Every structure is written in C-alpha cells, then in structure tokens.
Amino acid sequence: MSVRKLLSITATFFVVALCSPVFAAEDEGPRWDKGPVWVCSDVKTKYGHFDDYMKYLDTDWKAEQEAYKKAGRILDYKVFLINEPRTNEPDISLCQMVKNMAEFDRTTTDEYGFAKQVFGSLAKSNKEASERDSIRTIMGVTTLREATLR
User: Fold this and answer.
1) Chain CA centroid to CA 97, Å
2) Using CA atoms, how far apart are residues 79 and 116, in angstroms rounded to an integer?
3) In 3-state terms, the chain is what percent helix, strand and coil (to 5)?
4) Cβ atoms within 10 A of the Cβ of 118, count?
5) Could you read off the pLDDT of 109-128 as tens digits, one per residue?
6) Whose CA is closest to 106, among 146, 141, 144, 73?
7) 53 Cβ partners below 8 Å, 6+ apart?
8) Within its chain, how far is the Cα of 63 from the centroid?
9) Is residue 32 within 8 Å of 149, Cβ to Cβ?
10) Rounded to 5°, angle at Cα 82 from 79 and 83
11) Is 14 exposed, middle or buried (0-12, 13-18, 19+ CB in 10 A)?
12) Are 51 and 142 spatial neighbours (Cβ–Cβ below 8 Å)?
C-alpha cells in the first residue's frame, strides 16, 4: 500500500470519526417539542376588593371559561395566586391553555359571534368590564408556549 493511499484512508477515517457525533445528534432530533400555549392575564386587585374579585372569578368568569372549554376553544384554565407580591405587582394570574397558536387565527367575526353567545351583547360586556375596573387592574398579558420535553 502506498503512503499516499494510506494517508487518504487515514484522513477519511478522521473526517468520518469527527463528524459521527454530529450525525448522531441530528438523527436523535430535538429533545423537546412545541406544547400547548398558555395565555396569562396578570391582575392586581384594589385594596379591600380581593374577595370581591375572587367571587367574580368563581361565578361569571368560571362560567365563561367553562363555555370556552365546552366549545373546544380552550383546553383548560387556572387561577394562580401570587404569594406576597411587591408594590405594583399583580396578585392573581388568570391563565387559559389552548392547543396551539392556530387558535389565535380565528376571524374577528367568529370571535365576536362566540363572545356574544358567552357574554351577551358587546355593550353589556364592555359595561361589566368597565365596572370590574373599580376592583381590579389588568397589569398585562403574557403568552407562553409550553416546551414538552421528550
């Protein structure tokens, strides 16, 4: 065997050996997949109105979430209480879980039509939301994509 051929075989062996871990990693694929999407609204109740707002959540809000769940628009919902929030931070987080981002691609007509079934008229819904502002403030909304580890 010539030196040139031996060097060529050796070089080929080293290239294959160096690339093997890369190819093996590609064959495994990612270690996670896209899971459901959570939309969480952060709420700060006004002083002295925490129990008032919790009553609203346990009645009207819960009924609305159950209607969304029954219609297949959400998979689940949760109320999280934030332990000892700092000044100007929310004390409640209201979360809805949807299957995937496609849920947000509904037409405005479809969204308004379903909201009318659940909430009643737009004017009534807006009035009630405005009245809730006397006992709470929406601090923000966060959309989170769950990573499902394999």
Assistant:
1) 6
2) 24
3) 50, 25, 25
4) 15
5) 999 999 998 888 889 889 99
6) 73
7) 43, 45, 92, 132, 135, 136
8) 21
9) yes
10) 135
11) exposed
12) no
Residues 6 or more apart from 88 whose CB is under 8 A from it?
44
pTM, two decimal places: 0.78
* pLDDT number for residue 136: 97
Q: How far apart are CA 37 and CA 99, in angstroms?
A: 6
- How many residues in the chain? 150
3-state secondary structure 62-81: HHHHHHHHHCCCCCEEEEEE
Contact 101, 38 (CB under 8 A): no
SS3 134: coil
Contact present, 57 and 43 (Cβ < 8 Å):
no
| Digit-coded pLDDT (tens) for 1-34 | 554 544 444 444 444 454 445 555 567 899 999 9
- Write the DSSP string, 85-129: PPTT--SEEEEEEESSGGGGG--HHHHHHHHHHHH--HHHHHHHH
What is the per-residue pLDDT for 11?
43
